[in-house]
Specification:
Elements: H1 16-25, H2 28-40, H3 44-72, H4 76-84, H5 89-122, H6 129-137, H7 140-159, H8 165-188, H9 193-201, H10 205-226, H11 233-238, H12 247-275, H13 287-298, H14 302-336, H15 340-360, H16 362-391, H17 393-401, H18 407-451
Helix pairs in contact: 1-8, 1-12, 1-14, 2-10, 2-12, 3-4, 3-9, 3-10, 3-12, 3-16, 3-17, 3-18, 4-5, 5-7, 5-14, 5-15, 5-16, 6-13, 7-14, 7-15, 8-12, 8-14, 9-12, 10-16, 10-18, 12-13, 13-14, 14-15, 15-16, 16-18, 17-18
The structure holds tryptophan.
Tryptophan is lined by residues 24-25, 27-30, 102, 225-226, 228, 230-231, 233, 320, 323-324, 377.
Length: 452
């Protein structure tokens, strides 16, 4: 019996699939990366393009991954082979590489979150939130917490209990949302709120026109990152669906939760940053950590709220990380018959090693982050859009149609979107991202080597 003939599990409950997909999507991308990107790319101009890309690229691309996964019921490598033919398994191979790069630095950030969870009890970040972030985010301390995070991921995935995560998502996502919503009310009362809302919410189109070469790839990368697209996570999760659900409805629900959380984070972070009189581009990857630590210091029972917030945030990062490593592990199990524990331990250890440089040096951290989000995820998505739009359109259309009430119009619009506009936008973004990445290498990495 071939490995792929093994009867696969499917989601335990009807909403199990949605919860797991939301658990994957909601993570550091919403709470940490989103405000950091908004700050870096000039505020509302970025928000505007980002939201447009969620609808125009993210939504159709998510349906593509769902259709491939549900149709083939395989891990991404096997799925692409089954869907497109032999050569396409190499694209699945690219997904695996992306998983390694992505989780390596993701885990470092998740380590920061864990550190903040503990610091909420001791009050370590209260004296000087900015200095605290600078101190804990780089160096062997950061490596230590990165190790703790990877150990948690390995432990859960090795035992194979991640379906228990369906439950975690049920509690976690609402908890994060309500804490953030509460904090946004607090943020509203701050002196800098008005200025912050103008910065965050009212796009200046002249600014978009002036900066589109960096805003476009940043927004495309963030849209894919936050929705867990471009490396086969949603293919894997959809491969466990056995009934014919309405995938358009499911996708809408998943995306709405995800975008809502990111949006509220901005309503919290920017008023705090403006009230402190800081340029929103300055805190960089520290934006959410520094501003929330400041808020938890100011308000009553802030330490408790901080502990609850960073605790749930840690769980959110965990469910996302699990979805990334699961792509690689399920490949090793399905295609090579490797034991789950062995596969998880080996893969997790390699990822830990790959992440160490990013915990020791902010330039290398930036390198991994930009490479993964703006180049690799866009490339991965582009490939499968070409597969579904141009090569296997009838099969994809028939698959999406299952479970829809009025399939014809919707599936036609979808294939048309995938075939032309999505591919064009991704190509332009990828081109700009490669240029931007070359620039990054020249301005950051070359001097980096010269100094060392
Ligand atoms: N979407 C997750 C977040 O926002 C991260 C993530 C999980 C991811 N799986 C992914 C990103 C696959 C890209 C691809 O934190």
């Amino acid at each position: 019996m071939a490995a792929s003939d093994v009867i696969r599990e499917s989601w335990a409950t009807r909403i199990g699939f949605i919860l797991a997909a939301v658990g994957s999507a909601v993570g550091l991308g919403n709470v940490w990366r989103f405000p950091f990107q908004v700050g870096q790319e000039g505020g509302a101009a970025f928000l505007f393009i980002y939201l447009a890309f969620i609808v125009v690229i993210g939504f159709p691309a998510m349906l593509v991954e769902f259709a491939i996964g549900r149709n083939t019921k395989r891990n991404p490598v096997g799925a692409l082979r089954a869907f497109g033919g032999k050569g396409w398994e190499y694209v699945g191979g690219i997904f695996l590489v992306i998983g390694f790069v992505l989780l390596a630095f993701y885990s470092v950030v998740a380590g920061w979150v864990l550190r903040y969870f503990f610091a909420s009890f001791t009050g370590a970040y209260t004296a000087d939130p900015g200095a605290y972030f600078a101190q804990i985010s780089v160096g062997w301390d950061a490596v230590f917490f990165h190790a703790l995070f990877m150990l948690s991921v390995i432990a859960i995935v090795a035992i194979g209990i991640q379906r228990g995560i369906e439950l975690a998502a049920k509690v976690m996502v609402p908890a994060i949302f309500f804490i953030l919503a509460g904090l946004s009310v607090y943020a509203f009362t701050l002196g800098g709120a008005g200025e912050a809302y103008a910065y965050y919410l009212s796009p200046d189109f002249a600014e978009i026109a002036a900066n589109w070469q960096s805003v476009l790839p940043a927004a495309a990368g963030q849209a894919l990152f936050t929705l867990s697209l471009g490396m086969g996570v949603m293919i894997t999760y959809a491969s466990y669906i056995d009934e014919d659900r309405n995938l358009i409805e499911d996708g809408t629900a998943i995306i709405s939760f995800d975008v809502a959380i990111a949006f509220v984070v901005g309503l919290v972070v920017f008023p705090i940053i403006f009230t402190a009189g800081v340029d929103p581009a300055d805190p960089g990857p520290g934006a959410v950590f520094i501003s929330l630590a400041g808020a938890f210091t100011e308000i009553g029972f802030g330490w408790l709220l901080g502990a609850i917030f960073f605790g749930t945030f840690f769980l959110a990062a965990l469910t996302s990380a699990i979805s990334i490593i699961e792509v690689i592990v399920s490949y090793a199990i399905d295609e090579h018959g490797i034991d789950r524990r062995v596969a998880t331990t080996v893969v997790g250890s390699i990822i830990f090693l790959l992440g160490i440089p990013t915990a020791l040096d902010p330039v290398l951290f930036g390198l991994y982050d930009q490479l993964a989000a703006e180049v690799l995820l866009v490339l991965g998505t582009l490939f499968i859009m070409i597969l579904v739009g141009w090569i296997a359109a009838p099969r994809a259309k028939a698959e999406l149609a299952e479970g829809l009430e009025q399939p014809d119009r919707l599936t036609d619009v979808w294939i048309w979107l995938v075939r032309v506009p999505v591919v064009v936008v991704l190509l332009v973004s990828l081109y700009l991202a490669v240029l931007g990445f070359g620039e990054f290498l020249r301005t950051e990495l070359v001097p980096w080597f010269e100094i060392r």
